[in-house]
TrEMBL record:
The keyword Translocase does not apply. It holds the Pfam family Ribosomal_L37. Belongs to the mitochondrion-specific ribosomal protein mL54 family. One of its GO terms (molecular function) is structural constituent of ribosome. This is Large ribosomal subunit protein mL54. Keywords: Mitochondrion, Ribonucleoprotein, Ribosomal protein, Transit peptide. InterPro entries: Ribosomal_mL54 (IPR013870). GO terms for cellular component: mitochondrial large ribosomal subunit. Its main location: mitochondrion. It is found in: Mitochondrion. It comes from the Eukaryota.
């Protein structure tokens, strides 16, 4: 305990740094993308991560991994998951999603009943 008190006293005794001289600097405002709504068939517009980097070129579909195209398929709705759960069963990921949704619904209903009191 004594060591902690000594460290705290040393920190308090140190002089804190103030603001830099010269006043406040002008703040940079993000203006967003330069061109809105313009898409290209050769370049992935607006995908560059680093400042000053050019947008990456689009490749043919066979050069992308197959899992990338699976991301575009929509997830089944919770009603569909419930029907599938009652009939055949679900995969672990689908079951987690269904029970997470049910838990959120239960919490919302519980909060709504408590708010009415």
């Amino acid at each position: 305990m004594q060591g902690a008190r000594a460290r705290l006293a040393a920190l308090v005794a140190q002089r804190l740094r103030g603001l830099p001289p010269g006043g406040s600097k002008k703040r940079v405002v993000d203006k967003g993308p330069a061109k809105i709504g313009e898409l290209s068939k050769e370049v992935a517009t607006g995908v560059a991560i680093r400042k000053g980097e050019s947008d990456p070129k689009l490749l043919p579909d066979d050069q992308y991994p197959p899992w990338l195209f699976e991301l575009m398929t929509p997830e089944p709705s919770t009603a569909e998951l419930q029907r599938q759960y009652e009939k055949d069963g679900l995969t672990l990921g689908q079951m987690k999603r269904l029970f997470r949704y049910k838990n959120k619904q239960r919490i919302r209903e519980d909060n709504a009943t408590r708010a009415k009191k």
